[in-house]
């Protein structure tokens, strides 16, 4: 006898619905563009605007993706690298499988200013002061 097979979950949607609040003037301007045939509807305009913004910030998104990728092996984080991140206004999310070392030349203030989170599958080597300063960010 053949067992009955049931699908437990339906297919995941290709998109997700969001809600935004717009002022009446902005909404009217969008409706005017739709009426003039520039866009098929409000959603088409909003999707196009979002894609344009994502393209504008594409390089920053790519850099962020690189920073959030897990690294395998030994990874050292020194004062020079962290100072460059601070100068650029960037926050580092450390993800290492292996050994992550935070250099002895890194101050607790610099570490707090530049390291948003630390995930290490293996071992983290850092001074007691650094570990204390980042205690709430070590996952």
TrEMBL record:
One of its GO terms (molecular function) is DNA binding. Keywords: DNA-binding. It comes from the Bacteria. Pfam families: RHH_8 (PF17723). CDD domains: RHH_NikR_HicB-like. GO terms for biological process: regulation of DNA-templated transcription. InterPro entries: Arc_rbn_hlx_hlx, RHH_8, Ribbon_hlx_hlx. This is Transcriptional regulator, contains Arc/MetJ-type RHH (Ribbon-helix-helix) DNA-binding domain.
